[in-house]
Amino acid sequence: MNFSFRNKRISGLLTVAPANERSFLQEMKNFNAPEARSLKLMEVMGYDKRRVVTEGVCVSDLAVFGLQNLFSRSLLQPDEIDALILISQTPDYLVPPTTSVIQGRLGLKQDILCMDINQACAGFVIGLIQAFMLLEQQSVRKVVLLSGDVLSRKVSPKDRTIYPIVGDALAITVAERDAGESSIEASVKMDGSRANALCIPAGGMRLPCSPQTTVLEDVGDNNLRAKDHLFMDGSAIFNFVQTEVPSLINDLFARAGRDFNSVDYFLCHQPNRFMLQKLADKMKIPYQKMPNNVVERFGNSGGATIPMALTINIADRLKAGRVNACLAGFGAGLTWAAMLLTLGPFSFCELIDYN
Amino acid sequence: MSDPFLQKLAEILEVPEVKSSDELKALPQWDSLAVLSVIAMLDATYGVNLRAADFATVQSAGDLWKLVESQKRS
């Protein structure tokens, strides 16, 4: 599915990461994993530090903290927010929407559209498409897009295939109309027939949480996981990314009449360094044009990783001028999405710690 | 069997040599990271996309090569 937008832009970006940091090497020791193997995983996958919330912290807590930070510095006015979109898989409640919770806690105006979208690692691009569509309405002048998760709370501490790599974070992106002649192209694909590759089986209506869904089951290799926990078929996801993402991006460039040299940076979702390097290899993109250093510092935080890649690598450039970018996200659904746009100058672009 | 294929396997597994008859799963180096690296190598070198589940029937390096050959033709 293709999308085209004119005269829209991102005007600011703030990422919120919990201050609480964990170390991969330390955690692997707790799994009694051989240190040589952990070091190898560190070297190849880039696992090192990750940030996770302390007990009980929800997505709305990160969102309220970040938005209050922007309000207090007059980087954003509460009354300017005409729409609030949240991309997350870890809502505060099944009912009501988390955006309504955030609106209420911040006392935002009633003349607003609050909308939760259940998307994951492709979510930042999906959310931008939604934000730009809303900005086609004259009544909508500023959209605040929130994207991120507290997935560390939904992974099994006894599953070393996923526990040591998941991070928590939330990104706050402000989108508005642009007086210039900006042109944005995006493309999205979905394949629900592979939905089981990334799944939390229990907690919805199909399999409500119960004492049974908390029972840890041996899933092989001494890993234990319950139905309440996130399951990821790692090799199927790796294969999916290598197979589907390059052709999506190639087709997007062809449709826009652009080549890879016209882009300064490819900013992809950040599952691990290995996958991003293999993706860069396959597309013949130099590693320095496709940053892969988010996971080693923060872990994989779903829909917040692309904004994190921006804020930790090119914040100064984004505040000072323009950057031609290709964004690409891929994950649960399965969903894969890419967008070609010019970023900057941003009025703010930074990462803050949540305490 | 292709010698470059065996050489690439040896590089991934960090062993001096892999022979066609070698039982891959018997090697201590054969872990999930090795499987992922082999999947990536087969995709990059031969344009063949395998999943970890496809390795279920593979015992030896020769078996893996046969699987790659069959995928290349299909």
Instruction: Please compute the radius of gyration of chain A using only Cα atoms.
Output: 19 Å
The CATH superfamily name of chain B is: ACP-like
**Shape of chain B, please?**
globular
Please report the number of helical segments of chain B: 3
Give the number of DSSP strands of chain A: 17
* Residue runs with pLDDT of under 50 for 5 or more positions of chain A: none
Average pLDDT taken over every residue of chain B: 86
Structural class of chain B: mainly alpha
What is the number of strand segments of chain B? 0
The side-by-side strand order for the widest beta sheet of chain A comes to 6-5-7-8-2-17
Low-confidence stretches of chain B: none
Helix fraction of chain A by DSSP (H/I, runs of at least 4): 25-40%
The arrangement of helices and strands of chain B along the chain is: HHH
The biggest beta sheet of chain B reads: none
Q: In the CATH scheme, what's the topology name of chain B?
A: Non-ribosomal Peptide Synthetase Peptidyl Carrier Protein, Chain A
Briefly, what CATH class of chain B?
Answer: Mainly Alpha
Gyration radius over CA of chain B: 11 Å
What is the distance, rounded to the nearest whole angstrom, between the alpha carbons of the first and last residues of chain A?
Answer: 40 Å
Q: Helical content of chain B, roughly?
A: 40-55%
CATH-scheme architecture of chain B: Orthogonal Bundle
SSE topology:
The complex is a heterodimer of chains A (355) and B (74).
Chain A: E1 2-6, E2 8-18, E3 21-23, H1 24-30, H2 35-45, E4 49-51, H3 59-72, E5 83-87, H4 98-106, E6 113-117, H5 123-134, E7 142-149, E8 169-177, E9 183-190, E10 198-199, E11 217-218, E12 224-225, E13 231-232, H6 234-256, E14 265-268, H7 273-283, H8 295-298, H9 305-313, H10 315-320, E15 323-331, E16 335-343, E17 348-354
Parallel strand pairs in A: 2-17, 5-6, 5-7, 14-15
Antiparallel strand pairs in A: 1-9, 2-8, 3-4, 7-8, 9-16, 10-13, 11-12, 15-16
Helix pairs in contact in A: 1-2, 3-4, 6-7
Chain B: H1 3-13, H2 32-46, H3 61-73
